[in-house]
Specification:
The protein is mainly alpha-helical. It folds into 2 domains: 8-225, Rhomboid-like fold (Up-down Bundle), CATH 1.20.1540; 254-294. The protein is 54% helix and 5% strand. It has 10 helices and 6 strands. It has helices spanning 24-42, 71-74, 83-103, 105-130, 140-153, 165-182, 186-205, 235-240, 258-270, 277-293, and strands at 15-17, 20-22, 54-55, 135-136, 158-159, 163-164. A two-stranded antiparallel ribbon has the order 1-2. A hairpin with a 3-residue loop joins strand 5 (158-159) and strand 6. Helix 4 (105-130) packs antiparallel against helix 7 (186-205). It is globular. The two termini are 14 Å apart.
Length: 294
């Protein structure tokens, strides 16, 4: 129905299982579901997960400070089987799928790695200097980062029951911060602060969330996320594309009607959620006409 390939960023799945396309978002959620099953079989700090979580050295589980450097990237894998974990996965899938369509699969994968690695490196460095204690595990912090990035790009997207996305992000980050403060959990507080910072700097560095001018825009090389030639737009297409901050829009051509052009501009400035049902049907019909023409 829609395609981000118009702007040169491939949103094709990495592979398929049967007929189901496995995107980066779907892969991460699938890994989380498998991790809950393993957690239930072996227990909280079983022989597998005790080697994956990010912990300070006083936990007697091993730590990055003691040489277990793989923990810097494996800590989101262990997820406790719980009803709220399923809700977390559902939210991550909904928001992550939209950010992946926006960025493309390579850059979204790079974004998730940054959300995982950078906070872990910083909190480990602080631990080595100050001796703070704590641990983090599970997809929760990464989900917060995806939520913050989504809210930064689609600040006025409406969540049920009509609450703007930026309000949801502020409330959730604020509650997590208050909980960490109440528990005197400096370890988690540092990871949370770093996650929010990486999410905001990352989405700005990719060229989105242009309304947040107070966030510095870092320069990323063209090789960020090791994107392939198919994933990167040509120089001429980069100069000529309109609304490159779209999540996904129908392909347009020179013969597009003014009405459709206005709808595309609305999607460009306000996101797909701003369209009415009738307007969505108009865009879908436009996309079908283009497919038949091709």
């Amino acid at each position: 129905m829609y395609s981000s390939r118009r702007f040169g960023y491939s949103d094709d799945p990495w592979f398929r299982i049967g007929g189901y396309p496995v995107s980066t978002t779907a892969f991460v959620v699938g890994l989380g579901v498998i991790s809950m099953i393993i957690w239930g079989i072996e227990g909280r700090f079983g022989p597998i997960f005790r080697e994956l979580v990010l912990v300070s050295e006083n936990f007697s589980l091993g730590s990055v400070v003691e040489g277990d450097v793989w923990r810097l990237v494996t800590w989101p894998i262990p997820n406790e089987p719980h009803f709220w974990t399923i809700i977390l996965f559902a939210i991550f899938y909904m928001l992550g799928s939209q950010i992946e369509s926006l960025l493309g699969r390579w850059r979204f994968a790079f974004f998730l790695v940054a959300l995982t690695l950078i906070p872990a490196v910083i909190v480990t460095a602080v631990e080595a200097v100050t001796g703070i204690t704590g641990y983090v595990a599970g997809l929760r912090m990464v989900e917060v980062g995806v939520l913050v990035a989504f809210a930064a790009q689609y600040a006025h997207a409406r969540f049920w029951p009509g609450i703007p996305g930026w309000v949801i992000a502020v409330v959730i980050v604020g509650l997590d911060a208050l909980q960490a403060l109440g528990d005197r959990d400096e370890y988690s507080l540092i990871v949370l602060a770093c996650t929010v910072a990486v999410a905001l700097l990352g989405i700005r560095a990719f060229g989105y969330a242009t309304n947040l001018t107070w966030i510095p825009k870092l320069s990323l090389s063209s090789s960020s996320g090791q994107s392939s030639a198919r994933d990167r737009p040509s120089r001429s297409r980069r100069r000529s594309r309109r609304g490159d901050h779209l999540r996904a829009v129908p392909l347009r051509d020179e013969s597009v009607s003014p009405e459709i052009d206005a709808l595309l501009d609305q999607v460009s400035s306000q996101g797909l959620d701003s369209l009415t049902r009738k307007q969505r049907k108009q865009l879908e019909a436009h996309a079908r006409r283009l497919r038949r023409r091709r």
